[in-house]
Amino acid sequence: MDKQSTQKYSATNYLLYLLSKRDYSEQELHRKLKLKEYSAEEIEQAIETAKAHNWLSDERFCQTFIRYRAQQGVGPRRLKQELKMKGVADWLISQCLEVAEAEEGLDWFELAEQIFEKKRPRVWDLKAKQKMWRFMVSRGFYQDHFSHLLNQDYDEDE
């Protein structure tokens, strides 16, 4: 028996099932369909069908992903990296970040301040300052977003 006769659902049906749960990037769906051992032809046909019906949109995925991860306290640098790993084009990432900042009012400085204040230790010494710097960078914020907080708070508690 060949693979096609052992598969329960068509590639398009499986793709619809996945998209009913959440948005995916095109590359993620391609990878998932490939793991289910659909033929390259079936995969391409399913993805083209999804695009034609507007079920699949990297732009919509990118915007949703940015909104969701920003609410979790993730900064722009890490967002770019995660979206690249999910196969979203660089130009689309930049465009979606600009839209999030301009139209949706996403303020990286404000978000960095909220995250910083949540994690800031009670004892504020040089070691704590270094730890907070590493934490904020690992969260994906640029130094511009939080460096004023490190200096301001460090000077106040001396």
UniProtKB/TrEMBL annotation:
Domain RecX second three-helical: 57-97
Pfam hit, one: RecX_HTH3
Limits of the RecX first three-helical domain: 11-48
Statement: the UniProt record of this protein carries the keyword Magnesium: no
Record keywords: Cytoplasm
Keyword Cytoplasm: yes
Subcellular location: Cytoplasm
Domain RecX third three-helical: 109-145
General function of this protein: Modulates RecA activity.
PANTHER family associated with the record: REGULATORY PROTEIN RECX FAMILY PROTEIN
Stated family: Belongs to the RecX family.
Record-given protein name: Regulatory protein RecX
Taxonomic source organism: Haemophilus sputorum
